[in-house]
Amino acid sequence: MNDRIRVAVLGRNGRMGSEAVRAVEDAPDLELVAALGRGDDLQDVVDAGAQVVVDLTVPSATRENVRFAVAHGLHAVVGTTGWHDDALAQLRDQLAEAPGTGVLIAPNFAVGAVLAMKFSELAAAFFDSVEIVELHHPRKLDAPSGTASRTAELVGRSRERAGRGASPDATESDPLGARGADVAGVHVHSVRLQGLVAHQETLLGNTGEQLTLRHDSFDRVSFMTGVLLGVRSVAEHPGLTVGLDGYMDLGL
């Protein structure tokens, strides 16, 4: 009997999607039953008998892709950004009507990046200042990155729980936005540079000391460990999970 998990990949022609196709094909416990590109019919995923859909498309398409998957009782593992609070709320409402169906939305599938986010969250309660710098290739469509935004949200909540106020900053004039985006009270700076893949630093400071937490992905294969973890685990986590750490036993 074939007990392999049947997987469909959306975004097969993209940089992440093509890596995911190879990773699923190489995994002995998974079976790639469909790989769709732009303009392909989502019904092909259902007709192929997929159990899990991996969405690595673009922000303009991901919501409809996941809505379709949940409507057809398919689990979804999502690495596409563009999921803001209202979209997440709508997805939770849909999942409430689909008991047993799981969706994982992960800002980053690299295990090291997930750990760096968690370490940033823990450290933020103990430092006066915190800022985030994310560095990516120039073909990236969004800024700040989903990973940086998620990190800032975690850091902001951690500082709020610890009773810490805003990072000290005497800036009174910034007409060109040099201080970066404000995400959950944390300044986030985006760099787009040829030759980069995906990199992020969380900079934390106290008087007389600095802690830097940095993660580097030099190749998109680094994300596949997390993608495969998501595919193998999503059926065990009904409802919506945001962040790969929800599937990792970090003991924290």
Automatic annotation (TrEMBL):
Example of a GO MF term: 4-hydroxy-tetrahydrodipicolinate reductase
Entry EC no(s): 1.17.1.8
Cellular compartments annotated: Cytoplasm
Pfam families with a match to the protein in the record: DapB_C, DapB_N
Top-level taxon of the source organism: Bacteria
Domain Dihydrodipicolinate reductase C-terminal: 112-242
Alphabetized InterPro entries for the sequence: DapB_C (IPR022663), DapB_N (IPR000846), DapB_N_CS (IPR022664), DHDPR_bac (IPR023940), NAD(P)-bd_dom_sf (IPR036291)
Residues annotated for (S)-2,3,4,5-tetrahydrodipicolinate binding in this entry: 137, 146-147
Region Disordered: start-end pairs: 141-178
Enzyme class: oxidoreductase
Main location per the UniProt record: cytoplasm
Pathway where this protein functions: Amino-acid biosynthesis; L-lysine biosynthesis via DAP pathway; (S)-tetrahydrodipicolinate from L-aspartate: step 4/4
Residues involved in NAD(+) binding: 11-16, 79-81, 106-109
Active site (catalytic residues): 136 (proton donor/acceptor), 140 (proton donor)
HAMAP family from the UniProt entry: DapB
Protein name per the record: 4-hydroxy-tetrahydrodipicolinate reductase
